[in-house]
């Protein structure tokens, strides 16, 4: 009986020791914190530069003013011109990200020096049509798809341009005979890509098309011209290519991914 008890005790000790050893052999898995995912949500400001191109088509409409001014055969096309120049400006906006979608609004303004001219078909040997654009501004909504720190987006909204239109003589093409300063309103669409190289700083490249439609411009005689006012219908479109740098103030920092 004593031998049986000793044998039972030995077997019990053997099994309990093996179980303890097995428990000691299994190590707990380390807890890995979820990786943060970049978020585009937040306010931002920035600067941009690039190039601008415009296309303007002039026509003499059939109006009482033009008939009195010696254009009884109106309306006729009097030519058109294009121009290109630099642009530089600033922008500000807000993004809100939900999943991969990024919704936002943005306003921007650009300074430029767009100029163009052509011979006026009413008197091609004597007169020239001239256009100058000094500034643009847009206000648009944006919809984008985020791939972590990369953002691909489209935008659309309203556009504004600060223009001058004038007719000059062929002998002195930069001296206005009849002139109009004009504020033009239209619409715009655009597409772009942006990349955040830190949590707050990002770079972007963007293309915009601005359409200002056709508007009647009344050119007033200048002191050096013994002439009357005259009206032209001017159709205007503008294309912009921009590269920019944005600083994002953020909203709540990076989002933590959940698994």
UniProtKB/TrEMBL annotation:
Membrane found in the keyword field: yes
Secretion signal span: 1-21
SUPFAM superfamilies listed in its UniProt record: OMPA-like
GO cellular component labels: cell outer membrane
Gene3D superfamilies: 2.40.160.20
Keyword DNA-binding: no
Transmembrane region(s): none
Domain Outer membrane protein beta-barrel: 16-249
UniProt subcellular location: Cell outer membrane
Domain of life of the source: Bacteria
Coiled-coil region list: none
Keywords tagged on the record: Cell outer membrane, Membrane, Signal
Pfam family, one: OMP_b-brl
Membership in a protein family: Belongs to the Omp25/RopB family.
The protein's name: Outer membrane beta-barrel protein
Species in which this protein is naturally found: Bradyrhizobium sediminis
């Amino acid at each position: 009986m004593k031998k049986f008890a000793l044998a039972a005790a030995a077997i019990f000790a053997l099994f309990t020791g093996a179980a303890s050893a097995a428990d000691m052999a299994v190590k707990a898995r380390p807890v890995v914190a979820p990786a943060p995912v970049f978020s585009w949500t937040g306010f931002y400001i920035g600067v941009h530069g690039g190039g601008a191109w415009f296309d303007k088509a002039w026509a003499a409409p059939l109006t009482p003013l033009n008939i009195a001014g010696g254009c009884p055969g109106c309306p006729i096309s009097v030519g058109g011109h294009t121009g290109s120049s630099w642009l530089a400006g600033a922008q500000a906006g807000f993004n809100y990200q939900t999943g991969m979608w990024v919704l936002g609004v943005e306003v921007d303004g650009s300074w430029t020096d767009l100029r163009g001219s052509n011979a006026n078909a009413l008197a091609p040997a004597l007169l020239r049509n001239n256009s100058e654009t000094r500034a643009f501004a847009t206000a648009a909504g944006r919809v984008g798809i985020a791939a972590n720190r990369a953002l691909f987006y489209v935008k659309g909204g309203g556009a504004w341009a600060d223009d001058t239109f004038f007719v000059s003589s062929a002998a002195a093409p930069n001296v206005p005979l009849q002139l109009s300063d004009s504020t033009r309103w239209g619409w715009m669409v655009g597409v772009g890509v942006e990349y955040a190289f830190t949590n707050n700083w990002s770079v972007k490249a963007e293309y915009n098309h601005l359409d200002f439609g056709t508007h009647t411009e009344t050119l007033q005689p200048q002191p050096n011209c013994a002439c009357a006012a005259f009206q032209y219908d001017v159709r205007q479109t503008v294309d912009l290519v921009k590269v920019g740098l944005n600083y994002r103030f953020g909203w709540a920092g990076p989002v933590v991914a959940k698994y």
